[in-house]
Amino acid sequence: LARRGARVILACRSKQRGEAAAYDIRKETGNMEVLFMPLDLASLKSVRAFAEAFLNSEPRLDILVNNAGVGIYAGVRTSDGFNMQFGVNHLGHFLLTNLLLQRLKECSPSRIV
User: Fold this and answer.
1) What pairing do the DSSP bridges indicate for beta strands 34-38 and 8-12?
2) CA 20 to 30 Å from 73, out of 9, 29, 91, 103?
3) Nearest to residue 41, comparing CAs of 1, 2, 95?
């Protein structure tokens, strides 16, 4: 997407790794429109904060790529008390998609991957 000139927002839990990835992609592609924004899918509060910040700063959303996931975390809970795997792999993506859905519809033809 960055090579094709798209504005890309990397929504990552780790600021250090997210900013490093954005830097690497900018360097590799020459596209300066690759940015990091913090998002922890294990926290519904973080999902809501990300969606609010995104909607306030970004006029377009053409493609939403829900690509985060975790493996088995037996007994580990999200900050909201859900099983970590269920919270990150399902609830976080579901809430994020729903909070951004109107913007996706406004930017039709948009896609969720």
Assistant:
1) parallel
2) 9
3) 95
